[in-house]
Amino acid sequence: MAQLDRITIDPEICLGQPTIRGMRITVSVILKQVAAGMSAKEIVEAYPELEKEDINQALRYAAWLSSEKAKPLPIKGAAGA
To answer: 3-class DSSP state for residue 29?
Structure first.
């Protein structure tokens, strides 16, 4: 995995959600902006405390998470559960 030194997880900040450099800007906020069609430049303009590399690392972090294997949770009431 590429270095993600700007992604921080602290249980005392944003309930432990991944944030950018310990600020109260979560990776999910950035991802929602990208999904809404905003460019990295527009996101940095909206959040001046961010840098373009913060956006890049948020996207790399999300890509890394989505590549992890997920184990399905048992469905309540299903046979064998």
So the answer is: helix
* Residue pointed to by tokens 């030194």: 5
Cα dihedral angle (70, 11, 48, 38), rounded to 10 degrees?
A: 20
Dihedral pair phi/psi, residue 49, rounded to 5°: -75, -10
- Spatial CB neighbours of 62, under 8 Å, sequence gap ≥ 6: 27, 31
Domains defined for the chain, CATH in brackets: 7-67 (1.10.10.10)
- Of 26, 32, 29, the closest CA to residue 8 belongs to 26
- Give the H/E segment covering residue 8: strand 7-8
Averages of pLDDT over runs of 10 residues in the chain (81 residues) are 86 95 96 97 97 97 85 69 49
